[in-house]
Amino acid sequence: MKTGLVLEGGGMRSLFSEGFFDVMLEKGIRVDGIIGVSAGALFGCNFKSRQPGRGLRYNIRFKDDPRYMGWRSMLTTGNYVAPKFAFHTMPMELDVVDIPTFETDPTEFHLVCTDVETGQAVYHRVERIDDHELEWFRATGSMPIVSRPVRIDGRQLLDGGMVDCIPLRHFQSIGFGRNLVVLTRPEGYQKAPSRLTPPLCRLFHPHHPKVAECMKRRHEMYNAQLQYLETEAQKGNTLLVRPDHPLDIGRIELDEPKLRAIYDHGRQKALAMLSQVRDFLG
């Protein structure tokens, strides 16, 4: 039975996930495949390339660099996170992804996007790192309202978290029967509906009404997924990892002490669960 690592998104909350799987890397704990959504994918690729701490490092290094993210990029490109710098220049030139390791490591790597024309999830396996594949990473990390859709292979794509925040069911459907799921919300969290987001989506994505429709139903989808997680955990085929408390940071906030605190919390959680994770993954 193949083992998987499922990584929820959540912007900078996903540094909790990186802290967790960095300890797994350091302790030699491996899985057969990874699937990540949004920031879960952006940080999760560092597990396959075996670069612990990379996500924390580049966010601290470039946190004050206007080329990375901010309103200047939003005004000039329509994207709060700068498309060329953040998704091409930085990983290929400044804090380089270990491409040979990524491409030779046997761990499968999958990510999730949303097709803005159909409102359906698009699942993509990444087997190499080049400019084309980096656009898939940009797509899964492109939040509605503050990003324009990314055109790839005839599709227009945005953040996968619009339609599949925690893609355990999909990973099971392609053969990953035993999964470690790392969430970025604490136990007991339930997503509430947003009154503001759907109208903003209609304003910023007037030609793609499915975006607003997805965001209107997003809380229902997310809460149903949480219920499914609990059911699978009770069966014994899923191990859930959650932060011990709400993570005090915004999705695109770059306050260094907060970044470090969230990453460290993930590491502490992994050390506390180490024997449990080893036993679960076998």
Structure description:
This protein is of the alpha/beta class. 47% of the residues lie in helices and 16% in strands. Strands 1, 2, 3, 4, 5, 6, 7 and 8 form an 8-stranded mixed beta sheet that branches. Helix 1 (15-26) links the parallel strand 1 (2-7) and strand 2. Helix 1 (15-26) crosses helix 11 (256-281) and helix 9 (197-204) crosses helix 10. The chain is globular, with a radius of gyration of 18 Å. The relative contact order is 0.19. The mean pLDDT is 97.
Quantity of strands, as a count: 8
Helicity level, as a percent range?
40-55%
Task: Please indicate the percent range of residues in DSSP E strands (runs of 2 or more).
Answer: 15-25%
The stretches of 5 or more residues where confidence is low (pLDDT under 50) are none
Number of helices: 11
Radius of gyration: 18 Å
Would you tell me the structural class of the helices and strands?
A: alpha/beta
Could you tell me the mean pLDDT?
A: 97
First and last CA, distance: 11 Å
Overall form: globular
Q: Describe the sheet with the most strands.
A: 8 strands, mixed
Taken in chain order, the helices and strands follow as EHEHHHHHEEHEEHEHHEH
Keywords:
single chain, 282 residues, alpha/beta, eight-stranded mixed β-sheet, 8 strands
